[in-house]
Amino acid sequence: MVKIVIERMVEEGKFLKKPIGILSIFFSFIIGIFIFQSFAKAENHNEYNTLSINGQLTVILQLFYLDGEVEEEIVIEKPANLASLWDEYEHWTLVDMNEEQVVFKKEIDDISPMLKANGYFGLTEDQTLSVFYGKPNNSNIIQSFYQIDIEKMETRLLKQLKEGIPVRDKNQFKQILKAFKPYSTTDIK
What we know:
The strands form two sheets. The chain has a four-stranded mixed sheet with strand order 2-1-4-3, with no helix packed on it. It contains six helices and eight strands; from the N terminus they run ααββαββαβββαβα. It has helices at residues 2-12, 14-53, 82-88, 113-118, 155-163, 170-180, and strands at 57-64, 70-77, 93-97, 101-107, 119-123, 128-133, 141-147, 165-167. Helices cover 44% and strands 26% of the residues. The protein is an alpha+beta fold. The N and C termini lie far apart (81 Å). The protein folds into three domains: 2-50; 55-107, Ubiquitin-like (UB roll), CATH 3.10.20; 113-183, Alpha-Beta Plaits (2-Layer Sandwich).
């Protein structure tokens, strides 16, 4: 009985109409997705081109040094497109972006030029090991690290810290941090 109904539907063309209708809807849906994605890509591309063609773009470059110092440079760019801007700053990390400015950062595996020129390790009033711009006093702290138990420390080391230990390069910076780590009052990893 079922076989007769199916044969009759095939003869009348009803059996094929349903699959063709479902396939038509499926293909229409797929084509619609592709068209939507094409428009979305074109819209994003136009937005970026408008961003770079309509004028200047402020580029903020942030350099983060081991000693905690952050230098910032502001550059005005007129890129042909954003792809050329990305190429120019390919070794930088994008931080923020809007229609008027782009912010990039780069971590520098070195101490800052300012610290190399006039940096000193010393102690704050609360005995915290810190890096200072110039001889140690509480008004020119660049970065603080950890509190020191001065009771455990040799007198000559304490005197050196109070007077200030000059820092001239990355290796010396790391050696001083390591040398005073055993005198820390907190557990440091």
